[in-house]
Amino acid sequence: MSELISKSDFIRANVSNSNNDAVAFEMKFAKDLKVSQLKNKLEILTGGSAATMRVELYEGKNRLATLDNDDAQLGFYINSDGLRLHVIDSFLTLSFDNNTVEKFELTNDQYEQRKDSVRYYLKQNRLGKFNEEEMRQMEEKRREHADELQRRAELCVVNARCEVSVPGNPRRRGTIRYNGSLDGKSGIFIGVEYDEPLGKNNGSVNGKVYFKCGPNYGGFVSPLSVEVGDFPSEDVNLDDEL
Questions:
Q1: Predicted local distance difference test score (pLDDT) of residue 122
Q2: pTM to 2 decimals?
Q3: Structural domains of the chain ordered from first start
């Protein structure tokens, strides 16, 4: 009897490509897919090359990680739906001397008629914005993501104990010191004073103080990365170590 596959073995992620605005749609991937295998799958969607491709993980406009370990499984970087895989490929961004090479441009109508374009491929295979059901599901996912983000943010009360889990980083315990927006960034951020110096700042970002703590004891993360609870302080006494 074949083994049943759980829905939790897969994740859904939006795919974007800095080299072509037409590529922006949701795909489903197995969590045990290696990064090298993921790049091979993205080749057909972007027209790029797996050998020169770099894949970055985003939540909204915030970059969470770079998928730089080809042997790592996708689940090492992504544990939840709704994030975005952004493809940057130097194979598609070769530069030319504008003084010697005539710039090649197509009107929207001309591009619409081409049969070798990404848009034509998406239309023929009913992918992305050309699949009404996928677009409906994506919009529903966006609403669910926004609702969950708001719900988790409301739980992040200042001075509450918490545990932070960010892909590619160890779990860290600390105390919530800030809940709100950051200058120059969109969305809600939770400022955490960690029990250990495993953060990135002292509660300041770009010179603005949001809360005060020791160097490398502070960090700002998405509400989705924060679990509020009665987490005891980490028992760390560096003075006793030899």
A1: 63
A2: 0.47
A3: 7-135 (3.10.20.90), 157-240 (2.30.30.190)
